[in-house]
Amino acid sequence: MNASEKTCLVVFSGGQDSTTCLHWALRSFAKVEAIFFDYGQRHASELQAAQTIAARLQVPLRVFNLDFFRELGGNALVDSTVAIAPVPETGLPNTFVPGRNLIFLTYAASYAFTRGIRDLVTGVCQTDYSGYPDCRDATLKSLERALGLGLEYDEGGLVIHTPLMFMTKAESVAWARELGALDSLAYSHTCYEGDYPPCGKCPACILRKKGFAEAGLEDPLEARARGVE
Amino acid sequence: MNASEKTCLVVFSGGQDSTTCLHWALRSFAKVEAIFFDYGQRHASELQAAQTIAARLQVPLRVFNLDFFRELGGNALVDSTVAIAPVPETGLPNTFVPGRNLIFLTYAASYAFTRGIRDLVTGVCQTDYSGYPDCRDATLKSLERALGLGLEYDEGGLVIHTPLMFMTKAESVAWARELGALDSLAYSHTCYEGDYPPCGKCPACILRKKGFAEAGLEDPLEARARGVE
Questions:
Q1: What is the ipTM score, two decimals?
Q2: Tens of pLDDT along A130-159?
Q3: CA-CA distance, A213 to B6, in Å (whole number)?
Q4: What's this model's pTM, rounded to 2 decimal places?
Q5: Can you say whether the dihedral through the CA atoms of A220, A223, A224, A229 is positive or negative?
Q6: β strands within A41-127, DSSP E
Q7: In the 8-state DSSP scheme, what is residue B93?
Q8: DSSP-assigned states of every residue in A157-189
Q9: What domain range is B162 assigned to?
Q10: CA gap B30, A164 in Å, rounded
Q11: Is 60 exceeded by the pLDDT of residue A81?
């Protein structure tokens, strides 16, 4: 069966990368569904962004609550008592939530199983590597195999699509324009501080800014924040 | 570092197999911790069994709530409106919770990461195969690799120990006696119906009964139910 006849499930955070992937999925698959994980992020802005974008694109969005990471605590993305530190030269950044993407994709695969969906899409990317080992291609390929075996699919029965894996942020910005995703990106959320307009200073804002600058495009989110929609 | 100097984390359900594994872990590792997942099982008996056994053995037990499978619904282990059907000749039994062990082990690995523990122990077993693909050795080996990569451990840095993987139920009963685990097994929980004394008729009770019969031992749980402790 071709992708153009199948349904896929996009792991959607309302961020820049998964928004771009959502547009790619809409172009590539017959039907698209999305799944959002509320894992105790510091800010509600992510969920709001995801809901706004999904509604604009008429993509059904299923939200699951994961209290686990909140209970685990101790890192800057779920624990508001921990300040976000700059990415260290070596070692893991303090925004590392251990196993986050492993769990998201495993949950996504379980949910997809109940929906008869065998194609997952995620915006993880190892090129603009922020120190998250669960975003690397080797990890994802290995997880794809484990999940396929654990759900008793034939070899290659489960596919985790990672269209941004080897793109730089600048390349993914250029690609988002090609895909017609810029309108959606105006509603996407990136800032670790949860600010709107974005703080511009956290590691996530800096990475996003750099990508748009290198692609020679204005970030539609900033245009929207200035009231130029 | 030898196992005898390390701490391990046992994925503990309060059932026969993980109880046996807990005893193996106590014999093999310097320190043992346990983790229990409350995922909307039909009965509270599992948690009660786990707490009783862990307390008797003075093993610290951390309980995490996973609402996900309850929200997913549609199978007999989490949805009390679905009756437990006999294991079919082909295909998956209706007690299959898609991805259950994948998620348990991924969560366990994340929690272990925060505790500095890199050895996980699980009682899964592919020999007395009940139709659960997430209990097979190939699945677990593949998951071990994916989790290790996702948590940025060196090759072989994360180990999932599955001491019962290739044992029949009769062999694991005989081994439980060797390990001195029979006292604990008197408090373990197996019955899918949540009954005490166990119903003796569900697929889980039948498998347990067969194991003790073939090992030529009386089930200490039945002895306890008769008041012969």
A1: 0.85
A2: 668 888 999 999 999 999 999 988 888 999
A3: 49
A4: 0.89
A5: negative
A6: 61-65, 119-121
A7: -
A8: -SEEE-TTTT--HHHHHHHHHHTT-HHHHTT--
A9: 3-225
A10: 44
A11: yes
Strand partners, B116: none
Residue B10, Ramachandran bin (φ over 0: left; ψ between -120 and 50: alpha; else beta): beta
Does A134 touch chain B if contact means CB atoms closer than 8 Å?
A: yes
Q: Does an H or E element contain A31, and which? A: strand A31-38
- Among A206, A221, A127, A211, smallest CA distance to A170 is for A211
Cβ-based contacts of B152 with chain A (< 8 Å): 92, 133
**Could you report the per-residue pLDDT of B87-115, keeping only the tens digit for each?**
666 666 666 778 889 999 999 999 999 89
Residue A88, pLDDT > 90, answer no
Q: Which of A134, A147, A152 sits opposite B150 (nearest CB)?
A: A134
> What is d(CA A113, CA B162) in angstroms, rounded to the nearest whole number?
26
CB B78 within 8 A of CB B72: yes
Give chain B's domain count.
1
Judged by DSSP in three states, A207 sits in helix
pLDDT of residue A229: 55
Residue among A109, A114, A133 whose CB faces B150 most closely: A133
Q: Using omega within 30 degrees of 0 as the cis cutoff, is the peptide bond preceding A88 cis?
A: no
Beta carbons of B102 and A65 less than 8 Å apart: no
Q: Touching check for B115 and chain A: CB below 8 Å?
A: no
Residue A200 lies in a domain: no
* pLDDT tens per residue, range B184-222: 999 999 888 888 889 999 888 998 999 999 999 999 999
Give A-chain residues touching B143 at CB under 8 angstroms: 143, 146, 150
- Residue B100: which CATH number? 3.40.50.620
Coil/strand/helix, residue A67 = coil
CA–CA dist A223, A218 (Å, integer): 7
- And the tokens for A49? 């962004």
Can you point out the beta strands (E) in B1-135?
Answer: 7-11, 31-38, 61-65, 119-121
CA distance B33 to B7: 7
Residue B116: is it exposed, middle or buried by C-beta count within 10 angstroms (0-12/13-18/19+)? exposed
Contacts of B102 in chain A (CB under 8 A): 106, 109-110, 146-147, 150
Chain A residues within 8 A of B69 when measuring between CB atoms: 110
What are the DSSP calls for B156-202, one per residue?
Answer: T-SEEE-TTTT--HHHHHHHHHHTT-HHHHTT----TT--SS--S-S
**Distance between CA A25 and CA A180 in Å, rounded?**
12
Instruction: Let me know how long chain B is.
Output: 229
Tell me what percent of the residues of chain B surpass a pLDDT of 90: 63
